[in-house]
Design brief:
- The chain has 19 helices and twelve strands.
- The protein folds into four domains: 3-171, no CATH class; 185-215, no CATH class; 220-341, Roll (CBS-domain), CATH 3.10.580.10; 355-445, Uridine Diphospho-n-acetylenolpyruvylglucosamine Reductase, domain 3 (2-Layer Sandwich).
- Strands 8-9-12-11-10 form a five-stranded antiparallel beta sheet.
- By secondary structure, the protein is of the alpha+beta class.
- A hairpin with a 2-residue loop joins strand 10 and strand 11 (415-423).
């Protein structure tokens, strides 16, 4: 091969390199995270500002890149076909094969075109794009100024391509502006789950993020301590009675009621009570004089709104009111935080076992679990929206139609429920068994 041939090959490889530059630039700028650009922009990094501008105007970026890629590919193929094909054609003629000799230059043209296309696809597209994905931020900053410079040179062509693209997109019923729709919660959850599968995000972090998404869809009634579990004292209680409750329950704030628990008149802060006791001597205490006003909220209030209100008012406990004005339960700031981070136990809390899997089809379940939680635990589909109950024990009480007793059994949706434990007329533990028929059907489907 003479020097002229090598120079032509060098020019073709150079054009493929230009193609690679534009391909890598496109992938890097499109995939770079704006969260990484923001600090650089705030520090005055001009390249970061250019990249951010391209992200805001994707149609302009894509048109610029396409002009560069098209010209590089066109000239590489054209030069190869015009200069390399004749050399290969001469080689094929020397083989003295009749078919090759007759169509030597046509075959040479096809072979050169395929080779250049292959090399361009691998070295000019796939490899640079793969590398750009790995170092998107660095490459995006590096190519920002050259791409901006090229976009100014190719401005007339870019302007024409952008206008033509927007026109055709409008005809097809699309949006002419290149901005994508806002990312939905489900898309974020899919990305988070993918991150967990790859080991980038831990399981606890995934659970916490999902809990945050559910936070604004949850109402107070789903989170509150129910009326039957409220620890409260009468406004007429003696000091000894109050101290007994404090020692036994270890609460720092206790609701105070007058006559019935439906008439809560305030909250007793234990530190206020201790402030009234001096030198270890008993004194006459009138709860009405030291209780603080109670904060009342409706049971269907969204907990994200309540959380903001409690933060703003520096309130740690709220009384939940039902539609009739009676006491439905109470909720604390800790209850709200637990919806995000999970149960928070202190030195006085006894961890309650929510469920225990006995075998593949049998579970021991806490009666206070919600139907949604039972569905997740047992991998079943009890119709939560159709059932007017907050807990699995409420559903079983409705199905049995009588006061609960240990040993009572009911069936619903191919699930067999048996009451295992009752405390103060409340179901605390349930045995739930998937019926064999349903299990067999699930295995058959699988």
């Amino acid at each position: 091969m003479d020097v002229d041939l090598w120079s032509q090959i060098f020019v073709i490889l150079l054009l493929i390199g230009v193609n690679a530059f534009f391909a890598a630039s496109e992938m890097a700028i499109v995939s770079v995270r704006q969260s990484k650009l923001k600090p650089l922009i705030e520090d005055g990094n001009k390249s970061a500002k250019i990249v951010d501008r391209f992200i805001e105007e994707p149609s302009k970026l894509l048109a610029t890149i396409q002009v560069g890629v098209t010209f590089a590919g066109f000239f590489a193929s054209g030069l190869g076909a015009q200069t390399l094909a004749p050399y290969l054609g001469q080689v094929l003629e020397r083989l003295n094969v009749p078919i090759l000799t007759a169509y030597a230059y046509t075959i040479a043209f096809l072979i050169i075109t395929v080779i250049i296309s292959y090399v361009t696809l691998v070295l000019g597209e796939l490899v640079p794009k793969r590398l750009a994905l790995g170092w998107s931020d660095k490459i995006a900053l590096f190519v920002a100024r050259p791409i901006l410079f090229f976009s100014k040179i190719a401005f007339p062509i870019v302007r024409l391509l952008t206008a033509s693209t927007n026109f055709v997109v409008k005809l097809l019923g699309g949006e002419s502006i290149g901005h994508e729709d806002e990312i939905t919660k489900e898309e974020i959850r899919l990305m988070i789950n993918a991150g967990e599968e790859r080991g980038i995000i831990r399981e606890t972090e995934t659970e916490m993020i999902n809990s945050i998404f559910e936070f604004d869809d949850t109402v107070v009634k789903e989170v509150m301590t129910p009326r039957t579990d409220i620890v409260a004292v009468s406004v007429d209680a003696t000091l000894d009675e109050i101290l007994d409750v404090i020692v036994e329950e270890h609460f720092s704030r206790i609701p105070v009621y007058e006559e019935t628990i439906d008439n809560i008149i305030g909250i007793l802060y234990i530190k206020d009570l201790f402030g009234m006791m001096k030198n270890g001597k008993e004194i006459e205490v009138s709860l009405k004089d030291i209780i603080r006003p109670a904060y009342f909220v409706p049971e269907y209030k969204k907990i994200d709104e309540l959380f903001k209100e409690m933060q703003k008012s520096k309130t740690h406990i709220a009384i939940v009111i039902d539609e009739y004005g009676g006491t439905a339960g109470l909720i604390t700031i800790e209850d709200l935080l637990e919806e995000i981070v999970g149960n928070i136990f202190d030195e006085y809390d006894d961890e309650v076992l929510e469920f225990e899997q006995v075998d593949d089809n049998t579970y021991l379940i806490n009666g206070m679990l919600s139907i949604d939680e039972v569905n997740d635990i047992m991998d079943i589909e009890l119709p939560e929206d159709e059932l007017e109950f907050d807990t699995i024990s409420g559903m079983i009480l409705s199905l049995s139609g009588k006061m609960p007793e240990v040993g009572d059994e009911v069936e619903f949706d191919d699930i067999h429920f048996r009451i295992e434990e009752v405390e103060d007329k409340r179901i605390t533990k349930i045995r739930a068994i998937k019926k064999a028929k349903k299990v067999e059907e699930e295995e058959y489907v699988k």
